[in-house]
Amino acid sequence: GAGVSQSPSNKVTEKGKDVELRCDPISGHTALYWYRQSLGQGLEFLIYFQGNSAPDKSGLPSDRFSAERTGGSVSTLTIQRTQQEDSAVYLCASSPDNNNEQFFGPGTRLTVL
Amino acid sequence: GQNIDQPTEMTATEGAIVQINCTYQTSGFNGLFWYQQHAGEAPTFLSYNVLDGLEEKGRFSSFLSRSKGYSYLLLKELQMKDSASYLCAVRDPTGFQKLVFGTGTRLLVSP
């Protein structure tokens, strides 16, 4: 079946602009995660959604970052007033529940000029 | 806090065996994962350990010692396609939620 998909695959933006990154999880997966991977760094947890529960936002680096998950499926990660240090690959993952293997999407490479 | 340590880079020869170590310091423990990530691609699941011992899956095996905070990934009969980054991740014990990743070990397999 279809895996996790993300769009766009690449995004180049100017400092100060807002960007939206989209994640389509595997159908039926209730858990959805956003991670960030900067050059030379490990994957950094950003936010987690599980069903209708309140999301775990503990990894969001600043209030410029926010995420939504509509209808328990598609998720959007929004970064406002982008900064150069936001440049990274943003990875989305989903799992059948919160106690299983996570399946990753191909990521969105964000470059802030 | 939590800390995951892995070597940055390793090299090995095609057909050989390589062991990639991972040590972790966490306030609790709820499972350790190994992922493979080829350059420019998504991480893909390799193994999961929650109890002490060795889990074998084809050419890949993963070992866990919870008392030592230590795991390793063993790759046998190396192939060129095994050149990739190998990510060690510990599951956050506070809520069965996020994974805490190490920086990954870049493995280069040469002919």
Could you characterize what this model shows?
The complex is a heterodimer of chains A (113) and B (111). Chain A has 113 residues and is mainly β. Chain A is built from no helices and ten strands. Chain A has strands spanning 5-7, 10-13, 19-24, 31-37, 43-50, 65-69, 75-79, 88-95, 103-104, 108-112. In chain A, a hairpin with a 7-residue loop joins strand 8 (88-95) and strand 9. Chain A is globular and about 35 Å long. The relative contact order of chain A is 0.34. The model of chain A has no long low-confidence stretch (mean pLDDT 92). Chain B has 111 residues and is an all-beta fold. Chain B is built from no helices and eleven strands. Chain B has strands at residues 3-5, 9-13, 18-25, 32-37, 44-49, 53-57, 60-65, 70-75, 84-91, 99-101, 105-110. In chain B, the strands form two sheets. In chain B, strands 2, 4, 5, 9, 10 and 11 form a six-stranded mixed sheet that branches. In chain B, strands 1-3-8-7-6 form a five-stranded antiparallel sheet, with no helix packed on it. The termini of chain B are far apart. At the A-B interface, strand 5 and strand 9 of A face strand 5 and strand 10 of B.
